[in-house]
């Protein structure tokens, strides 16, 4: 009964390095969403993907951030040239073929930029 | 932009009492709403959802009420237990299929 899996759980990067966050959706789920959460704040939508397609990336910064969900393998959120302001918890959620309804969240990746 | 807000950022209740957490949403065209529970250091956990064609939905110890007239959502937890202590978020799904989350309400259950 594997749920949404994310790794790593904690990631420390120095300014200017790249961060790669991985998300494996629940078995049978084909929709993936990425959210960012700052301390004491709610979740902020970043991007919505289906296999090999970006459906909506309106919440993602135009520069340095990219996401993919390949035909095989996990979804990847990539942050290039990280800055201190990128420090946050990044959550991935998945939903089934019915579309963006009931979303199940992973445990998150906590990114710290030093 | 869209905004989903909560009336009370913190709520303390006695164990065994009922809890009510409120949420105001902004988009009258939003058609689907979810309540999540988030414990410290963990991802949000789905609690209950409701579609806009309903006013009320009940789960195990939880009830969600939707008032579309005033764009208000509430989560009622019956017989609150210490394990219910967490931050609770509401989320609305807009016609663009985006989910917007509120800041959250921190619920503390006093034994």
Task: Provide the descriptors you would attach to this structure in a database record.
heterodimer, A: 114 residues, mainly beta, seven-stranded mixed sheet, four-stranded antiparallel sheet, 11 strands, 0% helix, globular, B: 111 residues, six-stranded mixed sheet, five-stranded antiparallel sheet
Mean of residue pLDDT of chain B? 89
**Averaging pLDDT over every residue of chain A, what do you get?**
92
Fraction in helix of chain A: under 10%
Work out the helix count of chain B: 0
Query: What is the distance, rounded to the nearest whole angstrom, between the alpha carbons of the first and last residues of chain A?
Result: 36 Å
Beta-strand residue percentage of chain B? over 45%
Low-pLDDT segments of chain B: none
Structural overview:
- The complex is a heterodimer of chains A (114) and B (111).
- Chain A has strands at residues 5-7, 10-13, 19-24, 31-37, 43-50, 53-56, 65-68, 75-79, 88-95, 104-105, 109-113.
- By secondary structure, chain A is mainly β.
- In chain A, the strands form 2 sheets. In chain A, strands 2, 4, 5, 6, 9, 10 and 11 form a 7-stranded mixed beta sheet that branches. In chain A, strands 1-3-8-7 form a 4-stranded antiparallel beta sheet, with no helix packed on it.
- In chain A, strand 4 and strand 5 (43-50) form a beta hairpin.
- The mean pLDDT of chain A is 92.
- With 111 residues, chain B is an all-beta fold.
- Helices cover 0% and strands 54% of the residues of chain B.
- Chain B contains no helices and 11 strands.
- In chain B, the strands form 2 sheets. In chain B, strands 2, 4, 5, 9, 10 and 11 form a 6-stranded mixed beta sheet that branches.
- Chain B starts with a strand and ends with a strand.
- The model of chain B has no long low-confidence stretch (mean pLDDT 89).
- The interface between A and B is medium-sized, with 27 and 22 residues.
């Amino acid at each position: 009964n594997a749920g949404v899996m994310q790794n790593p759980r904690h990631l420390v990067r120095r300014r200017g390095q790249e961060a790669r966050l991985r998300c494996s959706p629940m078995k049978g789920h084909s929709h993936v969403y990425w959210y960012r959460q700052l301390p004491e704040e709610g979740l902020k939508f970043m991007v919505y993907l289906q296999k090999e397609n970006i459906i909506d990336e309106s919440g993602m910064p135009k520069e340095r951030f990219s996401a993919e969900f390949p035909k095989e393998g996990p979804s990847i959120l990539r942050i290039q040239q990280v800055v201190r302001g990128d420090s946050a918890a990044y959550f991935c959620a998945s939903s089934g073929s019915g579309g963006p309804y009931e979303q199940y969240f992973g445990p998150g990746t906590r990114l710290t930029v030093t | 932009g869209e905004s989903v807000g909560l009336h009370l950022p913190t709520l303390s209740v006695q164990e065994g009492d009922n809890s009510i957490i409120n949420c105001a949403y902004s988009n009258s065209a939003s058609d689907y709403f979810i309540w999540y529970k988030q414990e410290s250091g963990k991802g949000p956990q789905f609690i209950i959802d409701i579609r806009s064609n309903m006013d009320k939905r009940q789960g195990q110890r939880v009830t969600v009420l939707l008032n579309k007239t005033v764009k208000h959502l509430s989560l009622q937890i019956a017989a609150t237990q210490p394990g219910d202590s967490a931050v609770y978020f509401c989320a609305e799904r807009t016609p663009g299929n985006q989910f917007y989350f509120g800041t959250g309400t921190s619920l503390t259950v006093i034994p």
